[in-house]
Specification:
Elements: E1 3-9, H1 16-29, E2 34-40, H2 41-44, H3 51-67, E3 76-79, H4 85-94, H5 99-103, H6 106-114, H7 121-124, H8 126-135, E4 141-143, H9 149-165, E5 175-177, H10 211-219, H11 236-248, H12 251-262, H13 268-294, H14 297-326
Parallel strand pairs: 1-2, 2-3, 4-5
Helix pairs in contact: 3-13, 4-8, 4-14, 8-9, 10-13, 11-13
The structure holds tryptophanyl-5'AMP.
């Protein structure tokens, strides 16, 4: 059975981008593949969280994984830092990752632009740790959103380089995966790029947001002054709202507002009201379960204890074999 690995950084609550880009695929894959889904708390250290925030955020992501439908009996759910073998594999892969290629990664350049005062080495080698996460279980399929595509390409490079250096075929190539034919990119509400945690509170709708908060955020979404000629191309901000609608609303609804737009009869207020209600309905079951699971400490610790054990077993096996390949032998 093919092995699947994916993770989400524990930098706080999950938004609709995480949900539709990654988690809906996790849920669909969990019974068909050998799945490992982890909470990337080592990756989260690049932004220097306080110990209290780190802990609270990891817990929040565990709760939201479970609320979104990841079944701990079907998939292995674990915390990245509970499996120290990943740090060891990261060290080995770092010997073979070149500073020039790491500096060229789009996500690194974005981070440098956004936070010029915190360009740490962990940020530079972020894609190496990601490759270690994946290769740790020798996974071939990685369910992620569109923004992670380049990281997957880098994982393949590091896997192939290791194989070439040690004249082995130990690591198979991992590929980004989505059940839709293409990787998903969920836009934000600010009229610009993708939905993301670091793009400001108003840009993202979180799975744990209440219906009132969702309505407020959507009603404030950026629009323009409306089309003036029939079939006018849509500005990015408007296309983003239609893209969001395509994810949470029925095809009839999308068609209705498209026709209205094309006839210059659209009222953005009506579109936003509908979009907010459809977002609320689409996330309702997850929201309810977040509250239920969050109160159940025993359940959460049992899930994590079980997942960590399974993940370590797989990681230990890989690292024993990797050490042997590299030439660390017993005296
Ligand atoms: P992170 O935490 O930024 O995002 C987690 C997952 O959510 C997806 N995603 C989106 N998909 C569509 N539209 C969006 N607006 C959107 N925003 C986020 C991401 O593509 C991702 O799948 N580096 C990873 C975490 C990670 C990982 C790994 C993933 C660490 N190691 C190994 C896979 C395999 C990250 O920062 O994701």
């Amino acid at each position: 059975m093919e092995t699947v690995v994916s993770g989400i950084r524990s930098t706080g609550k999950l938004h609709l981008g995480n949900y539709y880009g990654a988690i809906t695929n996790f849920v669909k894959m969990q019974r068909e593949y050998n799945c490992y889904f982890f909470i990337a708390d080592l990756h989260a250290l690049t932004t220097h969280p306080t110990p209290e925030d780190l802990y609270a955020n990891v817990r929040q992501v565990v709760v939201e994984y479970l609320a979104a439908g990841i079944d701990p009996e079907a998939a292995t759910i674990y915390i990245q830092s509970d499996v120290p073998e990943v740090a060891e594999l990261y060290l080995y892969l770092n010997m073979n990752a070149y500073v020039g290629e790491l500096e060229r990664a789009a996500s690194f350049k974005d981070k440098v632009r956004a936070n010029p005062d915190n360009v740490n080495a962990g940020l530079l080698t972020y894609p190496v740790l990601m490759a270690a996460d994946i290769l740790l279980h020798r996974a071939t399929k990685v369910p992620v959103g569109k923004d992670q595509e380049q990281h997957l390409e880098m994982s393949r490079t590091f896997a192939n380089r290791f194989n070439r250096l040690y004249k082995t075929e130990y690591f198979a190539e991992p590929y980004a995966f989505s059940f839709d034919s293409k990787l998903v990119k969920i836009p934000g509400l600010d009229g610009k790029g993708k939905m993301g945690k670091s793009e400001g509170e108003a840009n993202a709708v979180y799975l744990s947001d209440s219906p009132e908060v969702i309505r407020k955020k959507v009603m404030r979404a950026v629009t323009d002054s409306g089309p003036t000629v029939p079939n006018q191309p849509k500005a990015d901000a408007i296309q983003n709202l239609f893209d969001l609608m395509a994810v949470v609303s029925s095809p009839d609804t999308v068609q209705h507002f498209n026709e209205q737009y094309n006839n210059c009869a659209i009222r953005y207020g009506d579109l936003k009201k509908q979009l907010a209600e459809d977002m609320i309905a689409a996330t309702e079951p997850v929201r309810t379960r977040i509250h239920e699971i969050s109160n159940d400490n025993d359940y959460i610790s049992n899930v994590i204890r079980m997942g960590n054990e399974k993940a370590r077993e797989s990681a230990r096996k890989t690292l024993t074999e990797v050490r042997e390949i590299i030439g660390f032998r017993k005296f």
